[in-house]
From TrEMBL:
Source species of the chain: Halothiobacillus diazotrophicus
GO molecular function: RNA binding
Taxonomic lineage of the native organism: Bacteria, Pseudomonadati, Pseudomonadota, Gammaproteobacteria, Chromatiales
Stored CDD domains: Cas5_I-E
Pfam families registered for this protein in UniProt: Cas_Cas5d
InterPro entries recorded: CRISPR-assoc_prot_Cas5, CRISPR-assoc_prot_Cas5_N, CRISPR-assoc_prot_CasD
Protein name per its UniProtKB record: Type I-E CRISPR-associated protein Cas5/CasD
GO biological process: defense response to virus; maintenance of CRISPR repeat elements
Alphabetical UniProt keywords: Antiviral defense
Amino acid sequence: MPTLLLRLAGPMQSWGTTSRFDQRDTGKEPSKSGVIGLLAAALGIDRETWNEDLQALAALAMGVRHDRPGVLKRDYQTAQRIISADRSKMHETAVTTRDYLADAVFLVGLEGLDRALLERAHAALQNPTWPLALGRKSYVPSESIWLEGGVAEEPLMSALSAHPWLTTLRHGEVMPERLLVSLESMDGNGALRMDQLLSSFADRRFGARYVRSAWVELNRGPNDASA
C-alpha cells in the first residue's frame, strides 16, 4: 500500500485540537486535521467544500516521525477593542496565549489504497494552489514540504522507518539511535485524539481516533560522517 511522505519543518509550528476562545494550544506533533487542511490548501479545496477528494484524504491512515521534537513555547499577546464572538460587547483589552513548537521537524506519512490521489497531492505540494503553513498562517515552513520521491510504494511504518533523517546535528548534539513515531491505531488502543475530519473545515466537525507510540531505528545514510 503506497504512502505519501511530507516534511514539516519550521521555526514555529502549532497543531492545536482543543483551543477555545483566547487560549490556543498545540499538540506535540502535527494533528491529522491540520495535515489534511494543509493538503486541501495545496489542492485548492476551499473551507466550504466536503468533496470526494477531501473525504478520501481524511480516510488515509497517518503516522508521524519526530525527527526533531522541538521545544514548547508560549506567545503572550494583547489586542484592543475586540468584539465578542456573539457581537454583544466590546473588550477594551484582550489577553491571549498561543502555544507553539519551536524548531521542530517531523516526517509525516499518509497511507492509502488510492495511489493516484497520493500522486496528485504530492504534485500539489510542489506547486500549491494556496500558501502552505504549519498550523497557523504566519508559521511558514523553512524547508519544502514536498519531498523528492515522496510517494513510497511501501506501508506506512516501513516508509517512516526507511526515510533518512530530515535534520542535521547541531553543535554538541549526539546522533539519536532511534526516533519516536506516532501511529494511527485501528484497534482502539492508544491516546485519544479528536482531530478526525468529518465535514468541511467551515462546518468544523471532528471525530475521535487513537494514536499509539513506537520507535524506529534511525536510518543513517552512507555519507553520514557521524554514523
